[in-house]
Write a structure and sequence with these properties.
The protein has seven helices and four strands, in the order ααααββαβαβα. The protein is of the alpha+beta class. The strands form two sheets. A two-stranded antiparallel sheet has the order 1-2. It has a two-stranded parallel sheet with strand order 3-4. The C terminus is likely disordered.
Length: 158
C-alpha cells in the first residue's frame, strides 16, 4: 500500500465519507433540485437545526456545498451544490482511448448508427467499419435515423 496518498485521493475519500451518512446524502439529493435555505432543508428533511448545522459544516468542509447570500436583500443564506465536486468523487481514467471503432459483421448501418450516437455523447473520436458491407441500409435503420437527424429526408437510401 502506498504510504503517501495523493491529495486528490484523500479529497475523494473525504467526500465519500461525507456522503456515507444518510442525512448528508439526503441534503445532496435535495440540492440537486436547486438551491435552498438551511431552514427549508431542515423542514423538508425533518432535521433539528443543530444536527443540520453539523451536517452542512461537514459538507462545506469537503467542498460539496457552498453558501451564498440572497441577491435581493443579502440577508438570507442559501446553500448551493457544487456539482463539479461530485464528478471528482469518481476516479480519473487510467487510460483514454485515442478513438473508438464500431464494427458490425453484417454492416447494415448498425455500426454507423452506433458511431453517430457515440459522437453525441463523447468527445473521443469514433469511426465505423463493417466486415461485410450490405447491399443497402436496413429499412429499420433508415426509419430510425430521421428521429435524431437534422438532414433532409432526401439523404435516405432506398
Amino acid at each position: 500500500m502506498n504510504a503517501e496518498w495523493s491529495a486528490t485521493v484523500v479529497a475523494r475519500a473525504q467526500r465519500h465519507a461525507a456522503l456515507g451518512e444518510p442525512a448528508r446524502l439526503a441534503i445532496i439529493d435535495r440540492l440537486l433540485l436547486g438551491d435552498a435555505s438551511p431552514s427549508e432543508l431542515g423542514q423538508e428533511l425533518d432535521l433539528p437545526s443543530n444536527l443540520l448545522a453539523h451536517h452542512l459544516k461537514l459538507l462545506e468542509q469537503v467542498g460539496l456545498i457552498e453558501r451564498s447570500r440572497s441577491e435581493g436583500d443579502r440577508r438570507r443564506i442559501y446553500l448551493r451544490l457544487r456539482v463539479e465536486t461530485l464528478a471528482d468523487t469518481m476516479p480519473t481514467p487510467l487510460r483514454t482511448a485515442p478513438r473508438v471503432v464500431f464494427v458490425c459483421t453484417h454492416n447494415s448501418a448498425r455500426s454507423h448508427l452506433a458511431a453517430a450516437l457515440w459522437k453525441r455523447h463523447s468527445i473521443v473520436p469514433t469511426a465505423s467499419a463493417g466486415t461485410e458491407p450490405a447491399q443497402r441500409v436496413h429499412p429499420r435503420a433508415v426509419a430510425t435515423a430521421p428521429a435524431g437527424s437534422r438532414r433532409p429526408p432526401s439523404w435516405r437510401q432506398r
